[in-house]
Amino acid sequence: MLPYPQIDPVAVALGPLKVHWYGLMYLVGIGGAWWLASRRVAGFAPEWSREKLSDMVFWVALGVIVGGRLGYVLFYDLPAYLHDPSLILQLWKGGMSFHGGLLGVLLCSWIFARRNGKGFFELMDFIAPLVPIGLGAGRIGNFINAELWGKATDLPWAMIFPTDPQRLPRHPSQLYQFALEGVALFAILWIYSRKLRPTMAVSGLFLLCYGMFRFIVEFVRVPDAQLGYLAFGWLTMGQLLCLPMVLGGAGLMAWAYRRQSLHGVAR
After folding, report:
1. Binding residues
2. pTM for this prediction
3. What are the EC numbers (predicted)?
4. Cα–Cα distance measured from residue 117 to residue 48, given in angstroms and rounded to the nearest whole number
5. Which domain holds residue 212?
6. Which residues of the chain are under the pLDDT cut of 70?
7. Position 2 in a domain
């Protein structure tokens, strides 16, 4: 068994002002995505200024934060937030939904693409390889918060999390997700997108891989207590939300390559 590192969730405390590591991880994700986008933008939109790129990152970040929070409220714990709406603003306590964030990004990207003369899927293919940076950083934030841990196990890398009332050795599922959704997904998308691909293919690969990675990890992750398992004694809300991602991603890739065979590579 590995010892949990016991990191204080508060990175900096200045009197009543507290800066949490969870919030800082969002800044790391947004900043990392902006830096990577600035390295890749010349091949996507060489006419874009630094300000235009910053505007795009702002819209995407807005979609992540607002969509992620509202998605968690709607998908995972609506009764609690209806009882006390002020909880919605307490982001430092966690409670963000990837799937809600994805919907927020799709909406904000659609608005930004229309305003700037870009095709929606053209823009999404550019954004998709940037997303794993934020996903990986967010999972590190979950690990520091000692939340979203996994099921009990006797594996040698199991950990006892301070937030676990049962004090059982558990899968560090946050680190599994960091490795898959952050590191592996970034590598796959980065390598795949280095060559010219038909429009929608990179977006489709993102949906397909994330959906599969998340679906797999959910088998060893404890579901949210207020929801439990939704069906068959194992299906979680996360898995249910990933199914349309896998199907949609596979469909987008198939459509993209069919269009390529009919019309040539489109970007």
Report:
1. 139
2. 0.90
3. 2.5.1.145
4. 11
5. 10-263
6. 91-94, 261-267
7. no
